[in-house]
Amino acid sequence: MRIVLINPCGDVDLQTHRYGAGHLGLGYVGACLRRAGHEVIGIDAKYEQLGMNDVVARVVDLRPQMVGVTSMTHEICHVGQLCTELKRRCPEVLTVVGGPHPTALPQRTLEEFAGIDVAVHGEGENSTCELAELIKAGRPRSAWRGVLGIAYRVDNTVQFHGPRSLIDDLDALPRPAWEIFPKAAFGRNQIVFEQCL
Q: Is 153 within 8 Å of 159 (Cβ atoms)?
């Protein structure tokens, strides 16, 4: 199954963010999805300085079955608009939002943003992979009940069956899938302290 993971960029971010490190959380989620056999493509809108229309156009061209977007609280309105526009242009795509904001407020995230289908609470590696397997198998939303760590809607009612336990063995995770992002996003803006020279 084709999945696109997005590090979003609000309009203000176009002026201020051009950094040299990939998004660690998306790198880990992408690696877990790839290990499960999914095709994963990353869009780092912050690094590439892509506005919402550019991101939507790329996603439309890629035709994924699922889109995952990370969101801090200061980005959630932009992410909500992005997901709404993605659903308008690709109604069949499943929009999944993870990161600090949906972790803090999974149910409220869905109540406030109709374009977001799923909010991931906590560490997203296992929850996202389980969800992707159910989507790939064509399982209905009623089958998602066993996936801990996600909030989703069934008949306009938000369902949340509790958080997932933290990952005990971090060494069991694959290395972050940096290769899903633009190569130019790495190796720049390195910080070296005087004592390290």
A: yes
- pTM here is 0.88
**Pairing status of strand 94-98 against strand 150-154:** unpaired
- Which residues lie closer than 8 Å to 129 by C-beta, 6 or more apart? 32, 33, 36
Instruction: Give the pair of three-digit tokens for residue 148.
Output: 């801990």
Q: How far apart are CA 184 and CA 101, in angstroms?
A: 28
What whole-number distance in Å separates Cα of residue 148 and Cα of residue 163?
6
pLDDT of 182 over the 80 cut = no
Integer CA distances (angstroms), 37 to 28, 56, 61, 140, in order = 14, 25, 21, 21
Per-residue pLDDT tens over the stretch 14-32: 455 555 567 899 999 999 9
Question: Looking at residue 93, what DSSP letter applies?
Answer: S
* Burial of 5 per CB tally in 10 Å (0-12, 13-18, 19+): buried
Match 């919402």 to its residue by tokens. Answer: 52
Domains in the chain, ordered, with CATH?
2-196 (3.40.50.280)
The two structure tokens encoding residue 46: 């912050």
Q: Which residues contact 81 (CB under 8 A, 6 or more apart)?
A: 52, 115
What are the CA-CA distances from residue 196 to residues 112, 187, 191 (Å)? 47, 17, 10
Give CA–CA dist 173/80, Å, rounded: 29
- On whether the CB atoms of residues 134 and 147 are closer than 8 A, the answer is yes
